[in-house]
Amino acid sequence: MGGKLRIALVDEKPERSSSLEAALIAEGYDVVARLGGADDLRARIAELAPDVIIVDMQSPDRDVLEDMQRIHREAPRPIVMFVDESDGPSIRAAVRAGVSAYVVDGLRSRSVRPIVEVAIARFEEFQALRHELEEALESLEERKLVDRAKGILMERRGIGEQEAYRLLRKAAMDRQVKLAELARQLIATAELL
Amino acid sequence: MSAPLEKRDLRIGVTPLTDCAPIAVACERGLFAEEGLRVEVSREPSWANIRDKVAAGVLDAAHMLAPMPLAASLGAGPLHQPMGTALSLGLGGNAITVSLALWRRMEALDPDALEAPAARVRALARVAAQRRAAGMPALRLALVFPFSMHAYELRYWLASAGLDPDRDVRLLVVPPPRMVAELEAGAIDGFCVGEPWNSVAVRRGSGVVALATHDLWNHAPEKVLGVSRAWAERHPGTHRALLRALLRAARWCDEPGHRAELARLLAEGGYVAAPLDALLPSLHDELPVGPGGATRRIAHFHVFDRFAAGFPWRSHAAWILTQMLRWGQLEKALDVRAAAADVYWTELHREVAAELGMARPQIDEKIEGEHAAPWKLAGASGETLLAPDRFLDGARFDPARVADSLRACAVHALRVPLDELEAAQRPRG
């Protein structure tokens, strides 16, 4: 085959695919296209005939790609899933990160593996970022709940803020539930009364 | 006594279709919990995800297209890994819908053919021929996955009128939730898909049901509970518990009066992203078929439990393998009945069904296509009422004579010489 491996990326998240593109170019690969849901995937892939296609597993377009058994018009070569035979857990790592990779049949596992590893690393990084964001949002949400529950106790029992917080903590520990969960229950009950 | 559970926390993959019903019911009505299982249902956006996540062990089991564990086990398609099934999740439930524009063309060219569903493909063939003569692009018909009953049903239908599905039309894959939008955008002219998407197209006035696949093969296999062979070997007790919960859920689905609640559970539980009133008709055996609210009554359109529907007939698997051969998806000769037996675990099914007191056939395969009405099969655990299994063209499918079945196909894309295939079949034992 000779020359650089030609890679196409299929991902709905442009920030992620542009960061992956940059990482792959830095490693010396040729990224021929970044495609998303708005593209006619079938036509674009047939026209570009990449050696490797990296696809976000959240994309419903995976099934469209599955239908393209042969991507090279001249000298047709079937595409297969990239499964690294030498390393069982690698497909698991890819699936967990949300990466699927298709390669033209006959490409050596050794030459594709680093590409898939770069993709896994980028996808994991994005997952971690999203996770942190969700946690931050959640704790903000939880703090609001606890504040509201404290307010209810202060008003109903005529106690101070610290005392209200202490009561909530104790009740949560006695019932073995999270503080925010207890607060949620207390607010729901208060709304009924 | 039940075997101990090797694992209690499970992830099961589903795709958003009406026929994920037994999994949804087992979850929502606490049947998994009664078996000591904590199940998280994972809604997957593609069939490829279902297969790969089961292969990688990220999902323990999944709502799979019936041909999927066979294709994965044989390495037909991009992934090669042994999988299997001990449970059919249901029978039937698909239809072929064409755009209103295509239906009008069919009507104009051959109005008589539209009278009977079975003859309608003749009108479609006339449209295809006319387009070819006029130098227009071929009709585009969509299916959900290359290895699916939808693919084989659509191909069977087209071939029955002499159309070559790989030359005379263009077949392409479209994910089910996108079918209706693509039909309305004119990107496709028709599709073969499961419910509720045919009903949705008809109710929106953008499509007409040309054929319920029930007309093609009565109560055809459709989805199965697929697992990897390695998972099944490591978790025999958990696998049985899962099968028991799903068999009981399937029974609940088919009990009289439960269908409205089932529709609500699927829509409100977030299993299927379609309005409740799009789910209801086909679950009540009334398939919306055309403009102005026309419906067609098809008895037992969706079957989950009745007719021993959960039984993984090896003759179903053999028929599917024969279609894979017919359309060039398998390149090497194989012993079809042996391959079916590797993937369809009838004995395990019978054992689990017996624990629940459910009567099951004592045979693993039958000749398909011989019954136009429900029929009874005598067995060790009593009589079993089985479903009609007629094909559109009156064909008879004998799993022991696949080469003969293929020899009778005028339209095909076979890549295996039939004498080689014949030689690979073990004689009937």
First-last Cα distance of chain A: 75 Å
The largest chain-to-chain contact, stated as pair and per-chain residue counts, equals: A-B, 24 and 24 residues
Contiguous low-pLDDT stretches of chain A (5 residues minimum) are none
Mean pLDDT of chain A: 84
Which stretches of chain B are low in confidence, meaning pLDDT under 50 for 5 or more residues running?
A: none
**Helix-residue proportion of chain B:** 25-40%
Distance between the termini of chain B: 34 Å
Number of helices of chain B: 19
- Strand-residue proportion of chain A: 5-15%
Instruction: Report the CATH C-level class of the domain at 94-212 in chain B.
Output: Alpha Beta
Shape assignment of chain A: elongated
Q: How are the strands of the largest sheet of chain B arranged?
A: 2-1-3-10-4
Number of strands of chain B: 14
The description of the largest β-sheet of chain A is:
5 strands, mixed
Main structural class of chain B: alpha/beta
Decide which structural class fits the backbone of chain A: alpha/beta
The counted number of beta strands of chain A is 5
Q: What portion of the residues of chain B fall into strands of 2 or more residues?
A: 15-25%
User: How are helices and strands ordered from N to C of chain A?
Assistant: EHEHEHEHEHHH
